[in-house]
Design a protein that fits this description.
The structure is a single chain. 24% of the residues are buried. By secondary structure, the chain is mainly beta. It is elongated and about 115 Å long. The protein has four helices and 37 strands. The strands form nine sheets. Strands 1, 2, 3, 4, 5, 6, 7 and 12 form an eight-stranded antiparallel sheet that branches. Strands 16-29-28-24-26 form a five-stranded mixed sheet, with no helix packed on it. 8% of the residues lie in helices and 42% in strands.
């Protein structure tokens, strides 16, 4: 097949003057549309971005196409249905898919309007049933003249797909015969509309083709070895904090921050369709994001001499800590915040992370962290999780409250711990007990503080009952 903008096919002229040929093409259109309708559910499973465009050939001699053409002018179907001759991702990308048609048999064309602070809005492409009428955009899924009803459907119509792409068309049952209304651009009236009844893509002047768009986002890339300044250090890197009620335990952290410079490749987005890459990015020349002929070159960040700080406490241990304000987030220009151990941790040692995020004027961010061990006063620990029970052994666990532990266990039926078995387990927070009977047991964990073990807890740390051994099943004759 030749491209629409090339010399018209002489067979088309013969078809226009030959009723038999016209009838044959009508029937061909019927078969194609019905086949597409049948295959739609398997060919389209997810929404995809598309551009829809019509190419207008500027002939050297409009009366004699054999003299060739000087250029091809593209007209893109935009969200506002206006005349745009260059690709703009903000207005020229449409989506199509079965999102609003659960069966997936047919696709809806729509675009997404992103409104800050609100849910995304969907706007659907629609068209009147009459010929040569302007296209419209509906804020809601229309009930007529759109992509939904079998008699009024816009299809991914794969006419000459391998060569130049399919068109966007509405099939219409006209007294038992399917005709095709193509989405086309009327260059005389400068508007998008549905074409006259047509049976072949090449019969529709200005008929638009759809092209799937591959969108690839590229993050900013800092050229290795070019960074200078930033966060030189943050101290202390790791610290332990023991609880004292008065005055409250506190720890001062310090960071050394300076101007930050680097060489980088800016972030950019690549839109690929019709075999061509379109590169969009801000080249730093004050014109904002726009299309460029190639990927961005290296740029210098300049001298970022202004910045802001954010200090934040996170992790299991953060619930016991805060800054002077009582909050776990501190946004300030101070380089030496003080962290307070404000609420006593009785649940066992827990770790918290202090994160410093420095944001520079150009939006670049640097991060440093320190680790804080929020310690519990040395004491006998509580059970951390339910015992893991098997038929001949049980694993018990506890919160960390010391550096040495002893585990004791006895049958629950025994009145005291005189005959209890025990094991000194060292600096761990779990232990597996073996060789047990299928009865209920009590266990307790005793912490070693300094050189001596503490007095055992008055109540068991927990209880468990081993599972019964599985029955032995013998099969045979």
């Amino acid at each position: 097949m030749k491209k629409l903008s090339n010399i018209p096919n002489s067979d088309l002229k013969m078809r226009r003057s030959n009723i038999n040929m016209k009838t044959m093409v009508q029937r061909l259109a019927i078969c194609c549309l019905l086949l597409w309708c049948f295959m739609g559910s398997t060919m389209a499973q997810t929404d995809k971005p598309y551009v829809i465009k019509s190419n207008d050939t500027i002939w050297n001699n409009p009366e004699d196409h054999s003299q060739g053409y000087s250029s091809i002018e593209s007209h893109y179907l935009t969200h506002a249905l206006t005349d745009v001759t260059t690709f703009d991702p903000e207005t020229c990308i449409w989506y199509s898919g079965p999102v609003f048609n659960v069966s997936g048999t047919h696709h809806n064309y729509y675009f997404i309007e992103s409104v800050p602070g609100q849910a995304d809005k969907y706007h659907f492409l629609s068209a009147p049933l009459a010929d040569n009428q302007p296209l419209g955009v509906s804020a809601d899924l229309p009930t007529t003249s759109h992509l939904k009803n079998p008699d009024e459907i816009y299809y991914f119509y794969d006419w000459d797909q391998d060569a130049f792409g399919g068109g966007l068309a509405r099939g219409h049952d006209d007294n038992g015969w399917w005709t095709v209304h193509w989405v086309s651009y009327n260059k005389q009236e400068h508007k998008w509309e549905t074409s006259e009844d047509q049976y072949h893509f090449y019969d529709a002047p200005g008929a638009a083709r759809y092209r799937e768009v591959a969108i690839t986002s590229h993050e900013i890339t800092i050229v290795e070895g070019t960074e200078s300044g930033g966060i030189a250090s943050m101290t202390p890197a790791t610290v332990e904090m023991d609880y004292v009620a008065s005055p409250l335990t506190q720890q001062v952290f310090a960071a050394s921050v300076s101007a930050y410079t680097y060489v980088y490749i800016p972030a950019y987005i690549t839109y690929n369709f019709e075999g061509v890459n379109h590169y969009f990015y801000d080249d730093g020349q004050g014109q904002g994001v726009m299309e460029h002929g190639d990927i961005p070159g290296q740029q210098s960040s300049g001298n970022n001499t202004t910045w802001t700080y954010e200090w934040k406490l996170t992790g299991e241990g953060a619930q016991f800590l805060s800054f002077a304000s009582g909050s776990d987030v501190l946004t300030t220009d101070a380089t030496s915040p003080t962290v307070y151990y404000r609420h006593e941790n009785t649940q066992g040692h827990k770790w918290a992370t202090l994160t410093l995020t420095v944001t520079y004027a150009d939006g670049s961010k640097l991060v440093k962290t320190s680790s804080i061990n929020v310690k519990t006063v040395c004491q006998n620990p509580a059970q951390a999780a339910a015992p893991v029970v098997n038929h001949n052994d049980v694993t018990v666990s506890w919160y960390p409250t010391a550096t040495q532990y002893k585990v004791e266990w006895k049958k629950a039926s025994e009145e005291n711990w005189n005959n209890a078995r025990s094991a000194e387990v060292g600096n761990v927070t779990s232990y597996t007990i073996h060789d047990l009977e299928q009865v209920q047991y009590d266990y307790r964990v005793i912490a070693k503080c300094g050189d001596e073990y503490l007095d055992p807890p008055t109540s068991p740390t927990g209880t468990f009952t081993p599972e019964e051994a599985p029955d032995l099943m013998i099969y045979g004759s």
